[in-house]
Design a protein that fits this description.
By secondary structure, the protein is mainly α. It has one domain. Helix content is about 75%, strand content about 0%. The protein has a two-stranded antiparallel sheet. α5 runs antiparallel to α12. The longest helix is centred in the N-terminal third of the chain and has 39 residues.
Length: about 425
């Protein structure tokens, strides 16, 4: 194994380029992000260390295990509260979260740049072509329009609650930017409860929106991968394209079958059965959209437009630094690295997507240095450009929350 520039613990594994890139990126990115998150990581590591020590042979390890689990649950509870929709009422927290998101993305990019070599990254920056930035911004605008129509369809399908246009625009704008969504669910549930949905229905449609995002991403990925295989392109490799070509469609069919068969049995049940029922109800919501395409085509087309335009924005980010990648290859890498969307990921996926997308896109044919810089541009521009819009809609979101607090509890309903 070869060490990377004297970085402690950073090694290359022969024949494992993806593991090398990802592992060394974590080392470099972790160093740079340490000033921001070191204290929290240290607290978690302390609990994990004591847990490992107990399991290693201390006589009272069961008691220590219980104590450590309790401490870690308490810390996770604090993090969950910090990332809930209630932060909308705290003006001072929003700018802090925006800065934290940008810092994590830049830290991830700097860590990857350390791996590939700052000299290569500097050379890529010298090839900057500003005209593609305008194309990137235009693609993001088109993407936002598609996202709004998809959002509206998931809220309304199967007799769902309706929000006034101004409020729906506010929630969709916050979800599109991602940094006000914090994992998607809390903000969407916040809006749905304000529209009159009961708690279970709010959870169902919030989960349905997440499923719709990833489902349409997968459908386009399947078509793209099949096209790559049919054309016999050398990139992306088969390890990228074959899973996309084979797995999503059977997965959809199995999920739709299971939802229709079991969701009624599990609805309203306590514990994990109730949570499984909510999950299956959310799949039913997605199925209703695709089962009636003539009625709900704006939602389906809107989500497809969202992903196509978002992927083009990533493509334009690479083109801005001199590399015009094959569109099909780009999309396969883009979909593979999109572990979660801006709406469903914490802090809009800050740090994680900026670390994963360059790895997967470079695995599909882009020069690694170009992928790093292009993805950072694609990630940071939407964050800061959507910030004024998100701050503008904050009063509307807060007004919705106050209206929800004044409403009597909604009666529990089941998705039909």
């Amino acid at each position: 194994m070869a060490h990377v520039r004297g970085s402690p613990g950073a090694t290359f594994l022969p024949g494992r380029p993806a593991a090398n890139i990802l592992g060394c990126g974590l080392v470099g990115g972790g160093r740079l992000a340490n000033g921001l998150a070191g204290r929290q990581i240290g607290l978690w590591a302390g609990g994990g260390g004591r847990l490992a020590c107990g399991l290693a042979g201390e006589a009272d390890w069961p008691a220590r295990l219980g104590a450590d689990v309790s401490v870690m649950r308490m810390r996770w509870s604090r993090i969950s509260r910090a990332l809930s929709a209630h932060y909308l009422e705290r003006r001072a927290r929003v700018p802090v979260l925006l800065v934290a998101a940008a810092t994590l993305d830049l830290a991830a990019g700097a860590g990857l740049a350390y791996v590939v070599g700052f000299g290569q990254v500097r050379a890529v920056l010298g090839d900057f072509q500003g005209g593609w930035i305008a194309a990137l911004l235009g693609a993001l605008l088109v993407s936002a329009v598609g996202y709004y129509y998809a959002y509206r369809g998931v809220f309304r399908v199967d007799g769902g609650p309706r929000l006034p246009r101004r409020e729906l625009l506010a929630v969709a704008a916050a979800g599109f930017g991602g940094h006000l969504a914090h994992g998607g669910g809390p903000l969407d549930q916040y809006a749905l409860r304000a529209a009159g949905a009961d708690e279970d229905q709010a959870k169902v449609r919030a989960a349905g929106l997440a499923g719709m995002e990833h489902g349409v991403l997968a459908i386009i990925g399947t078509g793209t991968a099949i096209a790559v295989l049919a054309l016999g392109l050398g990139k992306p490799p088969a390890s990228f394209t074959i899973p996309w070509a084979v797995l999503p469609v059977p997965g959809f069919l199995i999920a739709f079958w299971a939802a229709e068969r079991y969701r009624c049995r599990l609805h309203g049940q306590p514990g994990w059965r109730g949570r499984a029922g909510i999950f299956l109800d959310s799949i039913h919501v997605i199925r209703e959209l695709f089962a009636h395409p003539l009625r709900w085509w704006p939602a389906i087309l809107g989500m497809a437009l969202f992903w196509a335009a978002d992927a083009f924005a990533a493509w334009a980010g690479l083109a801005a630094f001199g590399f015009q990648m094959n569109a099909a290859a780009l999309y396969v890498g883009f979909a593979t690295g999109m572990l979660f969307t801006r709406r469903t990921g914490p802090l809009a996926g800050a740090g994680i997507l900026a670390l994963m997308l360059p790895v997967t896109i470079s695995g599909c044919g882009a020069p690694f240095a170009v992928a790093i810089v292009g993805v950072i541009v694609y990630r940071v521009l939407p964050l800061w450009l959507s910030t004024p819009v998100s701050l503008f809609v904050l009063p509307t979101l807060r007004q919705m929350g106050r209206r929800q607090a004044a409403q009597p509890p909604a009666r529990t309903q089941r998705t039909r």
